[in-house]
Amino acid sequence: MSEERDWRLLMDPPGEGVWNMAVDEAILDGVATGASPPTLRFFQWRPACLSLGYFQPRAVVNEEACAASGIGVVRRPTGGRAILHDRELTYSVAMPVAVLSGDQAVPSSYFRLSQALLEGLRAAGAWVTLARAEPDGGAGHGPACFDRASAHEILLDGRKLVGSAQVRRGGALLQHGSILFEPQIEELLGCLRLDHDERDRWRRSMVRGIAGLEGHSDCRPAALADAIASAFARVFGVRLRPAEITAGEREAAGDLCREKYGNQAWTARY
User: Fold this and answer.
1) DSSP-derived secondary structure letter, 260
2) Cis preceding linkage at 96, omega within 30
3) Among 80, 228, 64, which residue's Cα sits nearest to residue 147?
4) Alpha carbon distance 12, 39 (integer Å)
5) Which residue in 92, 91, 119, 81 sits closest to 28, CA to CA?
6) CATH code of 164's domain
7) Beta-carbon neighbour count of residue 120 at 10 Å?
8) How far is the CA of 86 from the CAs of 3, 183, 187, 188, in angstroms?
9) Contact, 152 vs 130, CB < 8 A?
10) What is the DSSP letter of 238?
11) Which of 89, 166, 214, 234 has its CA 20 to 30 A from that of 99?
12) d(Cα 66, Cα 58) in Å, to the nearest integer?
């Protein structure tokens, strides 16, 4: 297999939210410039962290409750809505859009990446399916990512298991997402500034709509990551080489931590 078909596999230790997002962006920038190979990365979050979508208003966050619970807050470089990262495994993939060959549109790329996730999760013992497009175009979404599924997202027993988001720049894409082990509905709602009626409404919606892997699959992060990585290799016809981030990526991530993700001006920009 040629070097062009080699991807990098990163199995990173748990990290703070600002570091996790800075590393994802540093890798995206490296892939965009050709300095980094296509990369599949798995990681967790310590301490637990609430991530906001790129355009999501900071006002939705209950700052006092998050601080009291030791939960960090970070704004993602990708869109979407709030996710509480705790009892889960996060995947991220950064690659040139050209890897998609024919149809490079965003919905098609979601579908292709979801196929790899679906195969990996099934190999890990979870009989998952893909969500179809909603006839109402997704109207009525609340502030939390997992209240309803969008097209091509991963479902378990008809409920959303994986929440993903994507950003593109310089001919490259970054998609990352949360694979839930345990739905933490009350914990997530506690991170959001909602009135009593809103809280009850979104609680009912999320109870109906969120799934977790516990009881359905092996929830050891390393075993799940291995199964999904093997599926990515099959779906994209590549070889995944275990590695670490480069010194250049580490330096870039450190700069992004200081200047962007750890900067309140970035977190509170909307």
Assistant:
1) I
2) no
3) 80
4) 12
5) 92
6) 3.30.930.10
7) 26
8) 36, 10, 10, 10
9) yes
10) -
11) 89
12) 13
Share of the chain above pLDDT 70, in %: 93
191 catalytic per annotation: no
3-class state of residue 109 by DSSP: helix
141, pLDDT greater than 50: yes
Q: How many domains is the chain built from?
A: 1
Catalytic residue among 66, 145, 191, 219: 145
Task: Quote the domain boundaries for residue 39.
Answer: 3-267
Task: Report CA-CA distances (Å) from 176 to 21, 135, 193, 236.
Answer: 10, 25, 25, 17
Per-residue pLDDT tens over the stretch 19-39: 999 999 999 999 999 999 999
- For the chain, give the mean pLDDT: 92
Tens digit of each residue's pLDDT (9 = 90 or more) over 169-204: 999 999 999 999 999 999 999 999 999 999 999 999
Alpha-carbon span 15 to 234, nearest angstrom:
29
pTM: 0.93
Question: In this structure, which amino acid lies at residue 158?
Answer: G
SS3 148: coil
Task: Output 200-208 pairs: Cβ under 8 A, ≥24 positions apart.
Answer: 201/142, 202/142, 202/143, 202/144, 202/147, 205/142, 205/147, 205/148, 206/144, 206/146, 206/147, 208/159
In this prediction, residue 132 carries a pLDDT of 83
For 51-108, give the DSSP string: EE-TT--GGGB-HHHHHHTT-EEEE-SS-S-BEEESSEEEEEEEEEGGGG-S--SHHH
